[in-house]
Amino acid sequence: MSEALASLAYGPDGWGDELLSGLWLTVRLALTALPFGLGIGLGVALLKDSRSWTGRLFGEAYTTVFRGLPELLTIFIVYFGAPRLLSASVAWTERLTGREPSGFAAAVDGFTAGVVALALVFGAFSSEVFLGAIRGVPGSQREAAESLGLSRFATFRLVILPQVWRLALPGLTNNWLVMLKDTSLVSVIALAELMRQSDVAARATHEPFLFYLVACLLYLGLSGLSTAGALWLERRAGRSFASAARQG
């Protein structure tokens, strides 16, 4: 038992540093994808709630595709397909402009591909959360803001968005926890995140239960911290509304 625990040591004689580096890469992947996914989700939700039928069609198509595809397949498409698409676009532009072919060959590193794939999937699921929150804000508040002379942008930024954020937080927290787990899938494109490092260590030491248990505890730790952070955000977002309710 002591030999097994010694394999978790930090340094050349153990796998502790590899596990921590994998944990850090997992956190960086999720945190980098988060703002892009939130932006995509909010943008798609606004399209689906717009008066333009083309906007609604694009929003529905986007969510249908990226909610329907397995996350693993999305990662493969981004990692292997995006470079080919970019290279073909450059070649097509060169032919169109009459320039000599440059032979440009695009490449996407594993981290970028993982971030893009995670953001696309997170955005698709979050768009439904944002859409429900947007439609949960009473229309009378928009009318009141317009009667005060606020522009549509000011109305959205000052009146609608704070309430949308409060209403969407529980659903977004759930999506964030799912994305944390989905980071394990990027190991298929040779990115040494937590799950891949745990698997390598388990195979090298022939102690699969120990290292998978450690990975389990680390993922649960991330989930616990995320849940605590989300509860703090929910209390902060609902503070002004609770104060207004007491005054009312």
TrEMBL record:
Which InterPro entries does the annotation name?
AA_ABC_transptr_permease_3TM, ABC_transp_permease_HisMQ, MetI-like, MetI-like_sf
Q: Which GO terms describe its molecular function?
A: transmembrane transporter activity
Membrane topology note? Multi-pass membrane protein
Q: Looking at the record's lineage, which domain of life comes first?
A: Bacteria
Answer yes or no on keyword Transmembrane helix.
yes
Parts forming coiled coils: none
An annotated GO cellular component of this protein is: ATP-binding cassette (ABC) transporter complex
Q: Which residues form the ABC transmembrane type-1 domain?
A: 23-223
Its family remark reads:
Belongs to the binding-protein-dependent transport system permease family. HisMQ subfamily.
Q: Is the Transmembrane keyword given for this protein?
A: yes
Official protein name in the record: ABC transmembrane type-1 domain-containing protein
Q: Where are the transmembrane segments?
A: 23-47, 68-91, 111-134, 209-233
Q: Which UniProt keywords apply?
A: Cell inner membrane, Cell membrane, Membrane, Transmembrane, Transmembrane helix, Transport
| Subcellular localization | Cell inner membrane; Cell membrane
